[in-house]
Design brief:
The chain has 178 residues and is of the alpha+beta class. Helices cover 33% and strands 22% of the residues. A hairpin with a 4-residue loop joins strand 2 and strand 3.
């Protein structure tokens, strides 16, 4: 009985013919098409859900040049509050302890408790109407320098009261207590 030689001339010609016919076809084509479609859908979603203006993240009545009004609905902690329109405001260049009394690594850490900072911010801003000047954003919150109706700059008052510290990194960008 004769054994089949996989390298016979006929087999070699057959393999070469198959390669010639499949030239230009690639197993990567379906994968490429799938990745292209996924990229197109992702780009479309980004464009569709991207804020139409920088003020979209701040609230309906806000403008970057003139600031925005915030009727304080609640105080979250010593450096964050929420306006009645849902806007979350983080006090620019202010560092206060968290509710759980911790400080994040690399952040300034005041000696005052988180509870004391929250109480002071509630005293200065709770239920009041503030006028805020946005400076940026942080974790879905607008960072801002805010004044209450008495003309007190809340950011500065928090630091001067001793319950919070100036965060130098951000204060260099736009100083508080000016």
């Amino acid at each position: 009985m004769r054994r089949h030689n996989p390298w016979s001339a006929a087999d070699t010609r057959r393999r070469m013919e198959q390669k010639r016919r499949s030239a230009g076809k690639s197993n990567a084509d379906p994968i490429f098409m799938l990745l292209s479609a996924a990229l197109a859908v992702s780009a479309g979603l980004v464009v569709f859900f991207w804020p139409s203006s920088p003020t979209a993240a701040i609230g309906k009545s806000a403008t970057l040049s003139s600031g925005f009004a915030c009727q304080v609905a609640s105080v979250t902690d010593g450096d964050t509050l929420r306006c009645t329109d849902g806007t979350r405001v983080r006090l620019h260049a202010v560092a206060a302890r968290e509710k759980d009394e911790s400080c994040s690594p690399g952040h300034p850490c005041p000696s005052a408790s988180g509870a004391a900072a929250t109480a002071k911010l509630t005293e200065l801003a709770g239920g009041q109407s503030l006028q805020c000047q946005p400076t940026g954003s942080s974790y879905g919150r607008v960072t801002a320098i805010c004044d209450n109706a008495a003309g007190v700059e809340i950011n500065c008052a928090m630091v001067e009261s001793g319950v919070a510290l100036v965060w130098p990194k951000f204060n260099r960008q736009q100083p508080i207590c000016s």
